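Supplementary Methods. Inverse-folding protocol.

Structures were first reduced to a discrete structure-token string of length 500. This string, shown here, constituted the complete conditioning input.
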């Protein structure tokens, strides 16, 4: 007898419940095509019930002492550490990335949980004595209410952990909508969050796609929406949520360029470039997908291709260098874009399209691929590929390379490889990109700072996690108070606006 495929549950009001939806989607292991579970597209009533549970829970959660909130996250970080191996295996099975990289995905989220445990020192107001005679003014950072998070497939642990821990630690309640392509590790993290002590209704989860996302953007009881995903969907979410009066932040697509100056340490630069272009099969919003080789560095292409050729492609559970792409559709799209690149005049220095992984012939694999002579106007340059494909461009000077990057619509991440402090300083000052790496290929900031982004890579002023997200998930209330001495209360009626 074949075993029934597990069904992913919703979390509403502290209970894991089976959806009544008629519409379900398979969650597929990208290395084998095995169906791991089925995920529902939640109904409108289920979305409404999750928001109602969060609204009810907010009444008491907002009054829960700071220390009590913080201690939940102290316990949560330990539970994540204790379950790291199990979480990584779950993540690899449904997402495809290597076990080592899955642990990295979880660890970068765990750092945000650690920061949430420190919420007492982050959510502080200001106080000024005697702004007028016997008048004091102070501010408090109050939670907003019900907040929602919508996450992409490529970091199913880190990105949900960018969102709900900080929202909840600051006193909000939350409705999470994970990626429907790989929600299983997210659900395990949610179970651990409840085990850590998050009360009923404070964290809720609904699954689905476009309809559920639109329902969250429209719901009058949701005060803020945090989104991470593609530029097309993020722009829609930003516009729709904002028009409905919500605070919104959307971290979106990318085309991250590295500049390689000829004075760079060649061995280090090429290793970093290959790791950042092909690691996670290029499915990172911070993957380096374009390298601008300046002057003499253009002669390094054969060495770069030789390094890329040594990378092992395989099933994530066997810990190769890179695993499969998330879906057949993603693999076919990447292969089509590579062909289009050649058709439009790029030179194929290394072709990963025919890679075969013994024992995993059905996997969605594409090996490291390098195209040189890439120019704006080619589809491989104008579109985010989201696969292990590195595009090479040439420039004569650092300034010319900076101009290329600033002319690209995206502004997520960038890196410079050089031994020159003066070049690094000019790059840092003149480049219009949110995350800048100097000899660091994937400069995702630790949560003492916030993730940023410029131009088409981000909508909304405040970034996820770090200090900025404390501002995103709170509203400032300004209180001006006067306590009269008996004599002072004998004064006259004042009809002007000045404080006297
Ligand atoms: P996606 O935009 O397809 O999906 C993101 C979320 O939106 C998912 O939860 C999905 O269910 C939902 N969604 C999909 N289509 C929708 C629609 N038509 N209407 C409303 N909601 C919809 O993104 P993805 O493919 O899951 O993730 C990859 C993308 O995310 C890449 O573009 C990558 O650069 C980006 N990303 C950005 C960052 C960042 O911090 N800037 C981080 C990770 C990923």
């Amino acid at each position: 007898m074949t075993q029934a495929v597990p069904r992913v549950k919703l979390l509403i009001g502290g209970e894991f419940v089976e959806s009544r939806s008629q519409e379900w989607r398979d969650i597929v292991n990208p290395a084998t095509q095995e169906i791991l579970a089925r995920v529902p597209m939640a109904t409108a009533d289920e979305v409404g019930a999750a928001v109602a549970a969060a609204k009810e829970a907010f009444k008491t959660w907002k009054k829960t002492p700071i220390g009590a909130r913080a201690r939940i996250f102290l316990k949560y970080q330990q539970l994540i550490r204790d379950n790291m191996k199990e979480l990584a295996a779950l993540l690899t099975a449904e997402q495809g990335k290597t076990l080592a990289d899955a642990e990295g995905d979880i660890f970068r989220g765990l750092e945000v949980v650690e920061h949430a445990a420190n919420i007492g020192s982050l959510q502080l107001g200001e106080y000024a004595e005697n702004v007028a005679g016997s008048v004091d003014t102070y501010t408090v950072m109050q939670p907003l209410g019900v907040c929602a998070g919508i996450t992409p497939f490529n970091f199913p642990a880190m990105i949900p952990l960018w969102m709900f821990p900080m929202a909840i630690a600051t006193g909000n309640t939350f409705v999470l909508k994970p990626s429907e392509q790989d929600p299983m590790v997210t659900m395990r993290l949610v179970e651990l969050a409840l085990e850590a002590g998050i009360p009923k209704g404070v964290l809720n989860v609904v699954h689905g796609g476009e309809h559920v996302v639109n329902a969250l953007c429209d719901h009058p009881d949701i005060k803020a929406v945090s989104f991470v995903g593609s530029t097309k969907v993020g722009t829609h979410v930003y516009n729709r949520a904002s028009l409905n009066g919500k605070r919104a932040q959307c971290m979106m697509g990318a085309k991250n360029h590295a500049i390689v100056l000829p004075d760079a340490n060649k061995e280090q630069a090429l290793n970093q470039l290959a790791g950042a272009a092909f690691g996670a099969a290029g499915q990172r919003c911070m993957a380096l997908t374009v390298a601008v080789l300046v002057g003499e560095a253009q002669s390094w292409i054969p060495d770069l291709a030789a390094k890329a050729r040594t990378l092992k492609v395989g099933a994530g559970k066997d810990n190769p260098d890179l695993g499969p792409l998330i879906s057949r559709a993603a693999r076919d799209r990447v292969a089509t874009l590579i062909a289009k690149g050649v058709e439009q005049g790029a030179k194929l220095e290394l072709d990963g399209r025919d890679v075969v992984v013994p024992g995993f012939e059905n996997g969605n694999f594409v090996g490291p691929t390098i195209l040189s002579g890439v120019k704006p106007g080619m589809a491989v340059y104008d579109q985010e590929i989201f696969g292990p494909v590195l595009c090479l461009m040439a420039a004569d000077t650092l300034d010319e390379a900076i101009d290329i990057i600033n002319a690209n619509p995206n502004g997520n991440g960038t890196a410079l490889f050089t031994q020159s402090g003066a070049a690094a300083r000019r790059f840092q000052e003149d480049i219009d990109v949110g995350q800048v790496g100097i000899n660091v290929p994937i400069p995702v900031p630790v949560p003492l700072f916030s993730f940023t982004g410029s131009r088409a890579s981000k909508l909304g002023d405040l970034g996820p996690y770090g200090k900025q997200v404390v501002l995103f998930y709170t509203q400032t209330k300004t209180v001006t108070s006067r306590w009269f001495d008996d004599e002072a209360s004998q004064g006259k009626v004042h009809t002007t606006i000045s404080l006297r």
